[in-house]
Amino acid sequence: MEISSKENTQFFSNTVLPVDRSSFKSESSASKEKQSCCGGIKIFIGALSFVYFAKALSGSYLKSTITQIERRFDIPSSLVGVIDGSFEIGNLLIILLVSYFGAKLHRPRIIGAGCLIMSAGTFLIAMPHFFMGRYRYERFPSTINSTVSISPCLQDESQTPLSALEKSQAKINAGCEKEAGSSMWIYVLLGNLLRGIGETPIQPLGITYIDDYAIEENAALYIGCVQTVAIIGPIFGFLLGSLCAKLYVDIGFVDLDSVTITHKDVQWVGAWWLGYLIAGVISVLAGIPFWFLPKHLPKPESRKDSSTSSEQSKFITEDNKDPHKSYQQQLKVAEMAKDFLPSLKNLFGNPVYSLYLCASIIQFNSLIGMVTYKPKYIEQQYGQTSSKTNFVIGLINIPAVAFGIFSGGLIMKKFRINVLGAAKLSLGSSFFGYLLLLSLFAMGCENSDVAGLTVSYHGTKWTTDYEQALFSECNSGCACSKNDWDPICGENGVTYISACLAGCQASNGSGKNTVFFNCSCVGTLESPSRSSSAVVGPCQKGNECPKMFLYFLIISVITSYTLSVGGTPGYILLLRCIKPHLKSFALGIYTLAVRVLAGIPAPVYFGVAIDTTCLKWGSKRCGGRGACRLYNSSALRYVYLGLTLVLGTVSIFFSVAVLWVLRKRSSPQDETLSANGERGTCGTKSRKDNFVNSDHLIQTTYWPEKETRL
Question: Where is this region: Disordered (predicted)?
Answer without folding.
Answer: 299-324
